[in-house]
Amino acid sequence: MERVLDPARIEAFAERAIARIRLPDRRQAFSRRAARLRQLSASERAGEGGAIGDYLRLMAVLADAQQSALGSFTAARPNAEALRLASTHGMPPAHAAGLTREPSWRGILGELCSSVLESGELPAAVRETCERLRGASAAPLEAQADALLGGRVVELDPAAAPFLMGALQVYWLGLATQFTPKEIKPLEVHGVCPVCGTLPVASVVRVDKGSCGNRYLHCALCATEWHMVRITCSCCQETKDLTYHSIEGGSPAVRAESCGSCRGYRKILYQEKDPGVEPVADDLASLALDVLMGMEGYHRLSGNPLLWLELAAH
Ligand SMILES: [Zn+2]
Ligand SMILES: [Zn+2]
To answer: How far does residue 120's CA lie from ligand 1's centre (Å)?
Structure first.
């Protein structure tokens, strides 16, 4: 007799076998990032240069402030009707460019700026930016947030953008953790975050519990991770003509995955080579790889949420 498996059971088995969605851990998402930024800044100091090391340390201060702001923040979950509409239209439930933000994100921004200002010695330009942001009125801040979330880079103040993005990350991470993985459905557009619709900063091949060596894309805004099969372009889904690039003498845990079809690239991190990899931090600390990729004629598919300058400026 032929054994027929119920499709629902097959699906349930597949769901168990692969964690398709990994929601961020609000107890330590930003503190882990801060620790990683500090660790990477220390190894940077041992190498050449130093400017990127200083920047990594400043972003570590910001990430610690984010963790502490998140501790007292509760996001309002979108109501049932909004969730039903999003699901009907195949939209993410907390769409960054579509959701009405509550003014609380500006309170978070004020907290972040105060924490950075109190952290000690700062370059004058950073101090001035944080003081300016802390005293800014609602309208220009909302306009900058719209430009950030809408990807309109030319409208941004690059010095202020990492702090604004820092506050929006706290807000959206708070929102993402209002859901359970089961409630988050994979989108038809596979290259964007299924919680907030933002592009990924990088991808990571995980070997920790529940991930079974799978590759995940990491959201630049809410830090949700979603599964994507390996050796597939995270932009155009092409599976042929992918190449992996690394810097000679650089970390074996960080490579760039380039696509011959769309000529784009994103970095891919390997937890088996370094268990501490963190997508935002490791991407930011490997700017030399971006320079190499630019020279080889590939374009970056999406930016780092903590750096809004043209790479040519470095
Ligand atoms: Zn997201
Ligand atoms: Zn591609």
So the answer is: 32
